[in-house]
């Protein structure tokens, strides 16, 4: 069976889908708790530097590989460099898709449950008890994870144009409006000054902590969907004539704004109510309901807006994770998209069950972390930077300078030479240093 390869209906559709992939739980749930634990501004500065020096070249490189190869993350390397081991990056990517989506679906399920809760009146009483009780339950979080994965599978099942592109074109503008509205509201609550100080006033001591570097760089990879072939796969659905450089810049700027603005939603509210920013992975679920409750009716509405925002952002990212694996297996097994999507989606749902159970129902820990937290930090802080490192090395060191500039559409741009130097030397060196720092810190 020879299958015709799908393409985006429009360039705008591609941008919305790639932005949908980038903007997700990473910007809100993961960003807020990682920054809360990383001491605020020190984390923020290293994260922003990583986005600029590593994020931009890696994204343009993934785009260059995908559009050039017009195929999935594994085959792309085989096609461009037959018989070489570079395709390991693609293999790691497909593995990362399974691992990340397994726990991502669990948090996506939590978000859906909370949206539903606010639709039907809100969460009252002790919100920590509510959260701990819910995630520690055996069946309820798995039920919501199942619903979330069902939606993800449903969209990918419909295909590149009718599923991924169409849903992203609707969800992204709605998300942006919801986020800006919530930030404006949160800033009126009285914690704005403290939040600004926490986010933007450098705390020099935190710069000496190696774990802050690892988590900030990992966050840059995770939030931009880099290092595992999601951006590669999406750009492989572009026609070869479509331009890349400004799309990469646009997506990066918007993803970063999304993270900063959601910081301005969460931290002012948090400080206004005297709560702790270092709360950890449950931050948005435990902290925000207190605030929504204290605000009465408008709070219930704000709570619904917030958790719907979180759910939609999660969904548009989850579809990109699933698509990496689906695109690979459609070709590999030569089976229809519909069959592959259902099978792969179901396997990932099952893989997520231990993450869900690890939140209280059953004690599953690795290196002292819950299984879910381990999967989150292992994939984000290690697997993605490693995948990204292989991809920049592949392009920077096996393509000619002319090819690198040409496939990044940056040959006639004054920033071209700077991009080339960054892609060839600065980005790989930076990733390597931080990875080694992380290993040493871990030992
Ligand atoms: N970028 C997404 C987020 O911020 C997560 C993601 C990572 C999606 C890797 C695809 C690939 O939530
Ligand atoms: Na993101």
TrEMBL record:
InterPro entries: Na/ntran_symport, SNS_sf, YocR/YhdH-like. Keywords: Membrane, Transmembrane, Transmembrane helix, Transport. One of its GO terms (cellular component) is membrane. It holds the Pfam family SNF. The chain crosses the membrane at residues 12-32, 44-65, 86-107, 142-160, 172-200, 212-237, 249-275, 295-328, 340-358, 378-397, 418-440. Signal peptide: none annotated. It is a multi-pass membrane protein. It is found in: Membrane. NCBIfam families: Na_transp (NF037979). This is NSS family neurotransmitter:Na+ symporter. It comes from Alkalibacterium olivapovliticus.
């Amino acid at each position: 069976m020879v299958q015709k390869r799908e393409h985006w209906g429009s360039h705008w559709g591609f941008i919305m889908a790639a932005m949908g992939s980038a903007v997700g739980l990473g910007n809100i749930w993961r960003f807020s708790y990682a920054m809360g634990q990383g001491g605020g501004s020190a984390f923020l500065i290293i994260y922003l530097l990583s986005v600029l020096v590593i994020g931009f070249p890696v994204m343009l490189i993934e785009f260059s590989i995908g559009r050039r190869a017009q195929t999935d993350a594994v085959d792309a390397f085989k096609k461009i460099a037959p018989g070489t081991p570079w395709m390991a990056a693609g293999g790691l990517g497909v593995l990362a898709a399974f691992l990340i989506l397994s726990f991502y679906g669990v948090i996506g399920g939590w978000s859906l449950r909370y949206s539903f809760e606010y639709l039907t009146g809100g969460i009252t009483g002790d919100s920590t008890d509510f959260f701990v009780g819910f995630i520690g339950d055996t069946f309820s979080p798995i039920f919501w994870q199942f619903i979330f994965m069902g939606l993800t599978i449903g969209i990918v099942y419909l295909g590149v144009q009718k599923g991924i592109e169409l849903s992203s074109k609707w969800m992204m503008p709605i998300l942006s409006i919801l986020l800006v509205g919530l930030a404006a509201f949160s800033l009126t609550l009285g914690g704005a000054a403290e939040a600004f100080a926490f986010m933007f006033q450098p705390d020099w001591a935190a710069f000496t902590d190696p774990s802050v570097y690892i988590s900030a760089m990992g966050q840059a990879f995770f939030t931009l969907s880099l290092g595992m072939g999601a951006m590669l796969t999406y750009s492989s659905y572009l026609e070869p004539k479509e331009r890349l450089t400004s799309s990469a810049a646009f997506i990066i700027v918007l993803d970063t704004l999304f993270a900063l603005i959601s910081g301005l939603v969460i931290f002012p509210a948090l400080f206004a109510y005297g709560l702790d920013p270092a709360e950890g992975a449950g931050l948005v679920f435990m902290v925000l309901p207190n605030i929504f409750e204290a605000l009465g009716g408008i709070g219930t509405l704000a709570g619904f807006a917030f958790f719907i925002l979180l759910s939609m952002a999660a969904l548009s990212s989850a579809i990109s994770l699933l698509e990496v694996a689906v695109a690979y297996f459609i070709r590999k097994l030569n089976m229809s998209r519909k069959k592959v999507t259902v099978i792969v989606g179901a396997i990932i749902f099952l893989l997520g069950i231990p993450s869900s159970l690890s939140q209280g129902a059953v004690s599953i820990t690795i290196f002292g972390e819950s299984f879910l937290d381990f999967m989150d930090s292992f994939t984000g802080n290690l697997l993605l930077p490693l995948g990204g490192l292989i991809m920049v090395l592949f392009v920077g060191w096996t393509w000619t300078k002319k090819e690198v500039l040409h496939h990044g559409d940056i040959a006639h741009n004054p920033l071209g030479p700077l991009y080339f130097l960054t892609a060839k030397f600065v980005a790989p060196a930076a990733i390597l240093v931080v990875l080694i720092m992380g290993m040493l810190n871990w030992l």
